[in-house]
Amino acid sequence: xxxxxxxxxxxIGLNIALQRKLKKMTQSQLAEKIGISRTHMSNIExxxxxxxxxxxxxxxxCDVLDISPEVLFKTN
Length: 76
Prior knowledge:
This protein is mainly alpha-helical. The chain has one domain (6-68): 434 Repressor (Amino-terminal Domain) (Orthogonal Bundle), CATH 1.10.260. 63% of the residues lie in helices and 0% in strands. It has helices at 6-22, 27-34, 38-45, 55-65, 69-72.
């Protein structure tokens, strides 16, 4: 996928993976709690794939991980 926001989607995915691991959750556990497949969760987190993610999914992830959305948009 060629997307002008590719780097941002990848960064969001990496931040989701980091926050999920800090909470000691698996991709399957997080995916189940927010109502998506584990495969889709894996695609969102994969650094070699650009997977656009909706705000609804971002907000659901933040609710489950007990973080603010800003955490997922950090660049460093």
